[in-house]
Structures are given as C-alpha cells and as structure tokens.
Amino acid sequence: MIAHRLSVIMIFCFSFFYILLIDGGMCLHAKEFWKAPNFKKYNTPDEVIKKYKDNYNETNMINPWIVFADRDSVNIYKTKSLTKKIAQANFLDRFMVKNWVNDSINIEQQGNTGKKIEGWANIKQFMLLSQACK
What we know:
There is one protein chain. About 35% of the residues lie in helices and about 35% in strands. By secondary structure, the chain is α+β, with helices and mostly antiparallel strands. It has 2 domains: about 1-35; about 60-130, Roll (SH3 type barrels). Strand 2 and strand 3 (about 85-90) form a beta hairpin.
C-alpha cells in the first residue's frame, strides 16, 4: 500500500518536472508570459508605447485599417512629409489605411463618383471605427 502511494507520488513528480523542463527549461506558455510586458508596473499606456515604439516606426499594413476623419477640412498631402496638399476630407469621411510611417498614414478613398483619392495625412486627425461609434 505504501509502495503503491510512493510510486504514484513519484510518477506525479516526474511528470510535473518533465512538463517544466520541456522546451529548453521552461514551458512554452511560461516563456510567452515572461516576454509580455507587465502592465501593472506602468502608470500610463504611453510608457509601454514608448518602450516598444522603436520596433514599429515603419510598417506595411497586412490587413488595412478603416479610419474616419475626426473633423472638417482634414488636409491630404502627396508626400509622407505632409507637403503639397492635394485634397481635403470632411468629418466622418471613410478611408482605408495602406501604410503607416511614424505619425503619417497613407490613405485611400474610393468616392461614390468613382474618383479615387490617395495620399498621406496626419494620423492624429483620424479615428478608428470603435471611436466613431461612441
């Protein structure tokens, strides 16, 4: 009886430590947990964004965002340096984001008349759908 209990305990301990030692000394879920930022130690979201922003300065959009102009007379420019104005957007005009570089977004709008507007704008002058519905 005692030998049986000891063997069960040994099997349990062996399997427990085997799980801990998988994947180079630590379970895969534990590795993912330790890589994630701990949001409890940050006072504001900006601290997390500043810490990881260098990795995301320039990106091509795999799945384009849909954004809406958050005010009237939002200028759309030809270059990402926001020079040479080509068009203006009105409040809640819908655009698809094709690219994002620092504070500039490459946007595209297919109008009802078939006229296509494509250019660059300041990201701070647009909002996402979740913000537009509030």
